[in-house]
Amino acid sequence: IPKSQYVLKGNKYYAEIMMAATDTTAPPKVNIQGSLLPTKSGKAIYEVGTPSVGQRSWEGSITFNGPDGQPQTLNIPKQEYFIIEPTVVISPVKMNVFYEGVDNPVRVSVPGVAPSQLQISWTNVSAKADGDQWIIRPNPGSAGMKCEVSVAVKQGSSLQRLGVMDFRIKRVPDPVAKVAKLREGKIKKTTLVAQAGVFAEMDQFDFELEFKVTAFTVSTLRGGYLKEVPTQGNLFSKDQQELIKGLSPGAKVFFDQIKAVSASNSADRRSLGAITLTIE
Fold first, then answer.
1. Which of 150, 149, 124, 148 is closest to 137 using CA atoms?
2. Of 4, 20, 55, 233, which is least packed with CB atoms within 10 Å of its CB?
3. Considering only CA atoms, which of 113, 122, 121 is closest in space to residue 153?
4. What mean pLDDT is reported for the chain?
5. Whole-model pTM?
6. pLDDT, mean of residues 74-83
7. CB atoms near residue 199 (< 10 Å)
8. Of the candidates 192, 172, 167, 162, the residue with the CA atom closest to the CA atom of residue 180
9. d(C-alpha 217, C-alpha 73), whole Å
10. What tens digit of pLDDT does each residue of 256-272 get?
11. Phi-psi region of 69 (alpha: psi -120 to 50; beta: other; left: phi over 0)
12. What average pLDDT does range 132-147 have in this prediction?
């Protein structure tokens, strides 16, 4: 009976070895790894140091006198335990997020335990092993749900559950529409005229994901009236270019009604915020 099959490096592995019934006048002899252990009240204590991490095993035998007074021996099946490094896990709870529509890389490990001995289950996502990590892809429409990650270690034919962690599944944030890398502020007319169109960028988002603008409108005041010129796609139309060329210093030009679609998921369509620029 081990205290635990997982021992921190530097501590001792401890197990009690006993028989359910013994003759108090002839206590059993316990032999572990070739060494005879002392017994007390029919129980032997096996303690061993843990100088390095990894998987360890031991086995032995118990010899006792049978009803006829003759010695009999029972083999102790092979026992396994794991020596692990003392570790501190600091998890930023509000950052435990999987984003829908992108590959989310995750590493799952237990110190001292080989990856092949881990069994990991996931909910509401698909998971694919990729070298020393997993690539997690939330199921379509799962934004707002949770992914429960459960980790267990294989011990022969049984499993020992080690822990569970929840990840929130969120929609990828909206991209930011820009002209000449700007969302607002002043711009030289020559710079604006030289631009090809409106582009969507994922600001401060660490995943590889692209959105393409599919429609937008350019508008400005002309003679006290708002002049609006829409187009499809992300490039300036000929009419929009003419509108921009006619701008005077101090005039404001607006890019709004901006629509975008994910390059990897045509069903993921977004309406983006407007851009306001002032001609220098």
1. 124
2. 20
3. 113
4. 89
5. 0.65
6. 89
7. 20
8. 192
9. 89
10. 999 999 998 888 999 99
11. left
12. 93
